[in-house]
Amino acid sequence: MSNKTNEKEVLLSVRNVDIAFDNKTGIGKKRFRAVKNANFDIYRGETFALVGESGSGKTTLGRAILRINELSTGEIYFKGKKISGKLSKEDDREVIRSIQMIFQDPAASLNERATIEYCISEGLYNFHLYKDEEDRIAKVDKALHDVGLLPEHKSRYPHEFSGGQRQRVGIARAMIMEPELIVADEPISALDVSIRAQVLNLMNKLKDDKGLTYLFIAHDLSVVRFISDRIAVIHLGRIVEIAETEELFKHPLHPYTISLLSAVPMPDPRVEKSKKLVVYDDSGRDLSGEKPILQEIRPGHFVFANDREMKEYDAILKEMEAKEAKQ
Amino acid sequence: MSENKRIILSAKDIEVQFRVRDNYLTAIRNVSLDLYDGETFAIVGESGSGKSVFTKTFTGMLESNGKITNGSIMFEGKDLTKLVTDKDWEGIRGKKISTIFQDPMTSLNPIRTIGSQITEVIMKHQGVSAAEAKKQAIDIMNKVGITNAEQRFDAYPFQYSGGMRQRIVIAIALSCHPDILICDEPTTALDVTIQAQVLQLIKDLQKEYKFTTIYITHDLGVVANVADRVGVMYGGQIVEYGTVEEIFYDPHHPYTWALLSSLPQLGVKGEDLFYITGTPPSLYNKIKGDAFAPRNIYALKIDFEEEPPFFKISDTHYAKTWLLDPRAPKVEKPEVIQNLHEKITAMTSEGGAYYVKQD
């Protein structure tokens, strides 16, 4: 990957990461490769989206960054320091604090028998990140305020909140640790349309106010387009395309990206009803030539291809660019 | 829709109450709906708006603490609200009116083969032999796009992927050639690409078998894709209904405006998305006035006092909002959803963000 670090600081980099699981029950006892040779950087202050369908390995990769899943090969660096594999106790704690997670289902991820105050303070307790009771309460109040909840909500229980409010609590308990990177795994998929908008707005606001960086894991391209700066598309464990958001939407190259784009339902009956579905099918593709790898076709735009495909993609891109230049 | 539309099912003034501990919750508040033969009617609304409960009354599948307390549902000359026992429902539920549920994993029996679950329905409703049922089952499995149907007949649900399982649920629902197919969030648990395929499949099968479809969904993109007509539900009522084009291009109820405005597809980067403040009304208490009024930025004084009637916008388009009263101030729909078609066309046309080149 190119080193454009002169202006943007690389916060996290994933290098040649493979994650495999032992398949103990299946036929042939083959190891299942959930993530195949993943390579990408996340810059400080951006929202980097990892988009794919269920089973694509997006969550596995997110969990690997949180060091829940072990890597089979490869390394992950956070602020230039290797965080995969064994770490010293202090480093371990520091990484746990600086990389926090927001979960998909706010109802399932909060302890339903604990008050909101405890839910939010849990990380502070574990890490002794407060001077005294007063300081802890002040921190909880501030976290609540940041996510748009009120101090009086502290004594309530998760079931007393609506889905959107619960997700705010989920965000507050991540925020109170003052993290630098937040891994948000499908944070809005379980929410209603109108509440989705609230949570997305909140995440954007926190990013601007606190200079947060997000790894946003999702399956829905329309949401991702609104929130992210760059997008990586992952299919069956393989990252097939990475580009800046508008670039990816304007010039999708990999056939899988194209099929994913065509599947986004648009809120317009005339457009939807005349739409033709593009189904991604590997079997019909010309896979001749050497093995494909993730290659940079334009600055910042990577696509998984071999040299023959690179030539084809380049021709397509040139044609699109020429057309746009005319307009 | 053609001129001479035949009404296949007619629900009038339906009210549904649930007994929860010592309280009564009114989930459906006087909803009426005429369903036309062969159409696709989509019901859209947030969770808790009552869209599932309403359609469950068509098949007598309300939970045991729920009761239809008012109204009638006429289907083939019978009032479905009068049916009580499972025996009464025989010949209608599953045969003439079928339902596809959201999660294919929970609607299939995990410890029985796919084949036996399809043949069971065919044998029960059509009284045919096991051999004949198997033949029909394999036939319908092929129809819903299961390759190697004969080999996969004896497989178990866990051996199928999510999309394939939903195809099996569709196969079971269609095995008795129902007149009405209720699809309750049929694709919410599926991936987007699989969702698109399943929606297409249901449309293709509808053309072939000519059944009427009711879609229940919260996804307006799905509605735009499948529906002929749309009803928007809020707080246990349909607040606006019309043809799909009327609802998307000329909506009149502030709740419909709000739903459309909060879509991320219409979001502009760097700006806040529109969102609806507050929470849906509690259905335990009697609702005074317009249920949406407390969250409605366009609410008038009367919205808090008196429930609005349906105002007619066209022969097919009605909305339940005081804003349509001649005395109300004139309010334009929000900027984000004006010229919706032009905006989306720009997004999907060549050079647009969602443009996909077709061969």
Notes on the structure:
The complex is a heterodimer of chains A (327) and B (359). Chain A is built from twelve helices and twelve strands. Chain A is of the alpha/beta class. Chain A has a single domain, classed as Rossmann fold (3-Layer(aba) Sandwich). In chain A, the strands form two sheets. In chain A, strands 6-7-8-3-9-10-12-11 form an eight-stranded mixed beta sheet, sandwiched between helices. In chain A, helix 4 packs across helix 5 (133-146) and helix 5 packs across helix 6. The longest helix of chain A has 20 residues, at 307-326. The two termini of chain A are 32 Å apart. Mean pLDDT of chain A is 89; it is low at 1-5. Chain B is α/β, with parallel strands linked by helices and 359 residues long. Chain B has a domain at 233-348: 3-Layer(aba) Sandwich (Rossmann fold), CATH 3.40.50. In chain B, 30% of the residues lie in helices and 21% in strands. Chain B has twelve helices and twelve strands. Chain B has helices spanning 51-56, 86-89, 104-107, 114-126, 130-143, 149-152, 162-174, 192-209, 220-226, 244-249, 254-261, 340-348; strands at residues 7-20, 23-36, 40-44, 66-75, 78-79, 97-100, 180-184, 212-217, 229-234, 237-243, 311-312, 318-319. In chain B, a hairpin with a 2-residue loop joins strand 4 and strand 5 (78-79). In chain B, helix 5 (130-143) packs across helix 7. Chain B is globular and about 70 Å long. Chain B starts with 6 loop residues before the first strand and ends in an 11-residue tail after the last helix. The model of chain B has no long low-confidence stretch (mean pLDDT 90). Classes of the chains: A alpha/beta (327), B alpha/beta (359). Chains A and B meet through helix 7, helix 8, helix 9, helix 10 and helix 11 of A and helix 8, helix 9, helix 10, helix 11 and helix 12 of B.
